[in-house]
Design goal:
The chain has seven helices and twelve strands. It has 224 residues and is of the alpha+beta class. It has a twelve-stranded mixed β-sheet.
Length: 224
């Protein structure tokens, strides 16, 4: 800063020769210093952490989504509050009350009950991929960043994981997820597109409890 001021004084003698105002040159030099402070960018882990915190801290989330797998599509809905959630779709439904995870399979007419691991929660609810992601995944920005978006790439730290990679696209202003692409180790690709997402919704706690009375014909497999 002091060197720039001294340089500014020396520029006065050159004003007639160059025809450029010393003030203009001084302002240019000051602007050249801005990137060191204002140009600092968030890292991929920081973006994931902030996006995850925004979802967890929301009083209630209501989302609509579409899942595309192997050329087939299915629509679904999500209600969540903190770490609790309920997912309803034609492919599966899930209830997590913060302790136990119930996953209903309409094809086999079975409901599986487990005390879920972090990995099982992510598989059940893709919006949770960023929750503690740095513990299990290496995070980086994708080579191509869409305008107005953050695109994160999650790669498992351990070998022989069922997931090969996860691409998550977030709105740069809201940090809310818009698209999640999960590639399995077997080459399968599942794409979740968020078609609607609202935060700070009022959601009753009973929503996250598995309504066993509604599914009397379903077999309950308790794997806890």
């Amino acid at each position: 800063m002091a060197n720039n001021i001294i340089h500014y004084e020396s520029l006065k003698s050159r004003r007639i020769a160059t025809g450029i105002s010393p003030l203009a040159i001084f302002l240019f030099l000051m602007l050249m210093m801005v990137p060191a402070y204002a140009g600092a960018q968030l890292t991929a882990p920081q973006v994931a952490s902030q996006a995850s915190a925004k979802l967890k801290n929301a009083t209630g989330i209501k989302a609509e989504f579409r899942i595309d797998v192997n050329g087939k599509s299915v629509n679904g809905s999500l209600l969540s509050a903190g770490r609790k959630y309920r997912i309803m779709s034609g492919a599966y439904s899930a209830w997590y009350d913060g302790r136990s995870l119930y996953t209903l399979n309409p094809r086999t007419k079975e409901t599986t009950l487990v005390t879920p691991t972090a990995s099982e929660l992510r598989e059940s609810n893709p919006l949770m991929f960023m929750d503690g992601a740095s513990e299990s995944y290496d995070l980086a920005f994708a080579a191509h960043q869409p305008a107005g978006k953050y695109m994160l790439v999650l790669t498992p730290k351990r070998k022989n994981e069922p997931i090969k990679s996860v691409f998550i696209t977030l709105d740069k202003k809201t940090l809310l997820p818009e698209n999640i692409v999960v590639t399995g180790s077997d080459g399968s690709v599942s794409t979740l597109s968020v078609t609607s997402l609202k935060t700070n919704m009022k959601i009753g706690a009973g929503i996250f409890i598995y309504p066993r009375d509604k599914y009397p014909a379903y077999r309950l497999n308790d794997l806890r």
